[in-house]
């Protein structure tokens, strides 16, 4: 007898009759939520989230298709951290800007190189070979300086 009353209470507690069902959200309120979600103020976004959360505690058969779409968009839609990094068409724009800057830098380098003065004599091959010979005659070590014989 005691177990039957517990079973009845459990059935009544788990049934939707025991819970006060929140009112259904209107289609005008949550319709086309994807297009206007980012323009809504944060307070309105939070109220829609809370109202949908209370509606989703009911069986899913009782939710309207608009409520299901809104709940799916809020849970998995492209907003907040899931918003795409680049808008459509921005990737190609970035590619062409980077390509243009790269080609421009090549032309700038070539122009500066053509307008520059000739290289100093110390950068020639003969000068470098004579410098190497001189350092060898002085027992120079390029890693620790001159090596002195003691």
Automatic annotation (TrEMBL):
Keywords: Membrane, Mitochondrion, Mitochondrion inner membrane, Oxidoreductase, Transit peptide, Transmembrane, Transmembrane helix. Pathway: Energy metabolism; oxidative phosphorylation. The chain crosses the membrane at residues 94-116. It is found in: Mitochondrion inner membrane. One of its GO terms (cellular component) is mitochondrial inner membrane. InterPro entries: Cyt_c_oxidase_su4_fam, Cyt_c_oxidase_su4_sf. It is a single-pass membrane protein. One of its GO terms (molecular function) is oxidoreductase activity. GO terms for biological process: mitochondrial electron transport, cytochrome c to oxygen. Signal peptide: none annotated. Pfam families: COX4 (PF02936). Belongs to the cytochrome c oxidase IV family. This is Cytochrome c oxidase subunit IV family protein. It comes from Candida parapsilosis (Yeast).
